[in-house]
């Protein structure tokens, strides 16, 4: 039975941010590849009022087409006003007002059966309002910060809980995330664990020495893949470097902590062994993960980090903290270590994996169950059930 899905996502790549929400794009493409499923993506773009809109990132966003064929998907990018750092509470209202005329028109042309919201806030409450107007059911997926941050803020908690209550079905990126949703007050019987996927053809084992040579690297290498923001814990990795004088650390990602992290490395005298690589195109990421002896990400919170899965698929063990679904993925010695968020513990775990490297095929085996086909099968079945087409 055919199903028409409106995918609503504030996490979606574009020409100015090709790595932003790439996992949502890949999930949407997998879902849309099914002959019985039609997917339309609405990826709202937040832009602040003048003069804040003159900032370089927002100028790039303002130039994006409002409708385009992105990979295999039809993507609409309506604009909505935001107030950076202070306007989270009003984003639901401004986004709904901005996109409702568009989705009404699209629904009138070819009716949707269900709305799939890719993030709990603001996407979830917006989906709830639109679903009510269109008189169709909706589902929301919890990924991490949307529950751990927006679900606990006094000014947004109620909207998050109301979206969970009104949704016909809910998805959690890990069993740990499901437990967090239940603890927040959401109905257990409504939540399905829906793991991410990884492209096992792209993220595969390659010769480590060749990868290091191509990147002009020598000796043991630790890669950390993630946005340069405080909760990702890159500062802990830099502090751990003092105990690992032969190790090079590559920070792959971008964000507001870039300058403070570089200053910390200089202060500790390890800046010659810490590289801020910046954003790396997703199709080049496997080269860095193959060059690394360890991928480390001592986050304060996660759902189930795609960076963990992609590293394991490349045969690279992971060192991370006991957050989110870490224990669901790093469930055997070959996969790596889950440690305390302390520099000494992190350094000890990294050193163990460098000195006693697990067999790379055994590492990769831990990621084999996370395929996009399995992800798409589960999502399609879930959405058909929500839409009453199961």
UniProtKB/TrEMBL annotation:
Q: What is this protein called?
A: Glycosyltransferase family 4 protein
Which Pfam families would you find in this protein's record? Glyco_transf_4, Glycos_transf_1
InterPro entries noted in UniProt: Glyco_trans_1 (IPR001296), Glyco_trans_4-like_N (IPR028098), Glycosyltransferase_grp1 (IPR050194)
Domain Glycosyltransferase subfamily 4-like N-terminal spans what residues? 54-202
Specify the domain of life of the species encoding this protein: Bacteria
> Organism source for this protein?
Sphingobium algorifonticola
Q: Which Gene3D superfamilies match?
A: Glycogen Phosphorylase B (3.40.50.2000)
**This protein's record includes keyword Transferase:** yes
Residue ranges of domain Glycosyl transferase family in the record: 210-369
Q: What are the recorded GO MF terms, alphabetically?
A: glycosyltransferase activity
Q: Which UniProt keywords apply?
A: Transferase
């Amino acid at each position: 039975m055919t199903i028409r899905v409106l995918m609503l996502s504030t996490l979606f790549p574009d020409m100015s941010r090709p790595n932003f929400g790439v996992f949502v794009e890949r999930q949407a493409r997998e879902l849309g590849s099914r002959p019985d499923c039609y997917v339309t993506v609405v990826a709202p773009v937040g832009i602040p009022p003048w003069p804040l809109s003159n900032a370089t990132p927002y100028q790039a966003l303002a130039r994006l087409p409002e409708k385009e064929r992105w990979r295999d998907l039809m993507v609409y990018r309506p604009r909505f006003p935001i107030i950076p750092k202070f306007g989270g509470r009003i984003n639901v209202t401004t986004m709904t007002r901005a996109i409702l005329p568009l989705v009404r028109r699209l629904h009138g042309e070819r009716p949707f059966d269900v709305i799939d919201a890719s993030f709990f806030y603001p996407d979830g409450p917006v989906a709830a309002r639109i679903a009510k107007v269109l008189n169709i059911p909706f589902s929301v997926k919890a990924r991490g910060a949307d529950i751990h941050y927006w679900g606990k803020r006094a000014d947004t908690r109620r909207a998050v809980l109301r979206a969970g209550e009104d949704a016909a079905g809910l998805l959690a990126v890990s069993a740990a995330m499901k437990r967090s949703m239940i603890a927040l007050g959401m109905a257990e019987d409504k939540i399905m664990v829906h793991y991410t996927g990884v492209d096992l053809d792209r993220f595969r084992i390659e010769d480590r020495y060749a990868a290091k040579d191509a990147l002009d690297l020598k000796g043991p290498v630790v890669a950390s893949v993630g946005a340069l923001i405080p909760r990702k814990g890159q500062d802990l990795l830099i502090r751990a470097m003092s105990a690992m004088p032969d190790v090079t650390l590559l920070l792959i990602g971008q964000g507001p902590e870039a300058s403070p992290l570089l200053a910390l490395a200089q202060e500790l005298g390890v800046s010659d062994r810490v590289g801020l690589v910046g954003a790396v195109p997703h199709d080049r990421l496997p080269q860095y993960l193959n060059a690394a002896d360890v991928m480390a990400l001592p986050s304060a919170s996660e759902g189930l980090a795609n960076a963990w899965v992609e590293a394991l698929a490349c045969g690279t063990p992971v060192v991370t903290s006991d957050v989110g679904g870490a224990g669901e993925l790093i469930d055997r010695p070959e996969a790596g270590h889950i440690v305390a968020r302390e520099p000494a513990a992190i350094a000890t775990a990294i050193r163990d994996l460098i000195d006693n490297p697990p067999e790379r095929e055994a590492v990769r085996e831990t990621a084999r169950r996370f395929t996009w086909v399995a992800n798409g099968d589960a999502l399609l079945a879930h959405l058909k059930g929500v839409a009453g087409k199961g």
